[in-house]
Amino acid sequence: MMSVIPVSKHSSNKVFLNTLKGNNSDAIPLWLMRQAGRYLPEYREIRKNAGSFLNLCYTPEFATEVTLQPIRRFGFDAAILFSDILVVPDALGCKVSFTEGEGPRLETITDESALSHLSLDNFLKHLSPVFQTVQNLAQELPKQTALIGFAGSPWTVATYMVEGKTSKQFEKIRHLSYASPDFFHKLIRLLVDATSLYLKEQIKHGAEVVQLFDSWSGVLPEIPFKQWVIEPTKHIVANIKAAYPDVPIIGFPKGAGINLLKYINETGVDAVGIDYTLPLEWVRDSVQTHLPVQGNLDPVLLAADKTAMKQQVEKILATFGNKPFIFNLGHGILPHTPIEHVELLVETVRNWKR
Ligand code: 1CP
User: Fold this and answer.
1) Percentage, residues of the chain above pLDDT 70
2) β-bridge pairing 103-106 and 96-99
3) How many Å lie between the centroid of ligand 1 and the Cα of residue 33?
4) pTM of the model
């Protein structure tokens, strides 16, 4: 039996948690989405030895190590559990594989018969190595570093289950959601239940914050955005809050645009990730007035040009730095990002004074 660490034991004085609670600290907390990954030589080394990508996610020793790598190198204020959003369909019984250079491939779930083969029966057991990783991290992280758990949001995870891979236009899933709304609703409901269970179990094992990645929410019109992004998120937030009212939840509805306002008013998330397209002053005046924000440097700029990147980092800090703010990218870091650019980013954020 795994012993479980009580949430209260390791939460005390962390800048990241303090900011999420709506307080200003002297320093701006900093972490980067996808901070463990292929831009780090030490990640590529472990990745080579782990065999398949899923094996890396499901082997606690490997997953713990790669989570810690960016913390050792850059001293970020938060570590994010190393796993992937697609372990959720995998654990439900929808086969997932990752091929080098091609991205994920999934068994497609587009009708009742395929859906009937998915189940929650073995779900948490299948994911037990992930919870072991969370527990290792809760013990091994420096005391000032917060631990973030995560999951994909139902809509974003469903895009992979329906399309079978990374999509560009999301036509198949949008068609299915309009043509077979009852079926689609059942799929989303299963993902709401699975995601709620998954995140609660991460918290039980030591995650202090959870983030919901809705990477593809931006392809939906207003009404489907409400149905497939806001409603499922609201249910997941309510399920988590019923068990863990004090654990902050960060929502990241990438590409939401002006729909972000309804998202923050209706879902109950405690903070939002801001993607790289949103105008800074609009976010400051319309979003940061309601809750802490996290973002939003363009990861392409980080990889492309040091001088312009530094200027933009300073602009972001000057715009958001006087209210609760977490520095991050506006989407995940890219594999070809030079490490010295990340070093300059960290130095710029660390040297900034309110
Ligand atoms: O071989 C490799 O190293 C594969 C690259 C890789 C990595 C490093 C994948 C495959 N997943 C991950 C880890 C990962 N994925 C993390 C780890 C923690 C960290 O941030 O350090 C996280 C949070 C994710 C989340 C994730 N996976 C998202 C949401 C965030 C985002 O970037 O939009 C999505 C959409 C995925 C799916 C996924 N996983 C991997 C690939 C190649 C993809 C497809 C991406 C796409 O469709 O564009």
Assistant:
1) 97
2) antiparallel
3) 10
4) 0.95
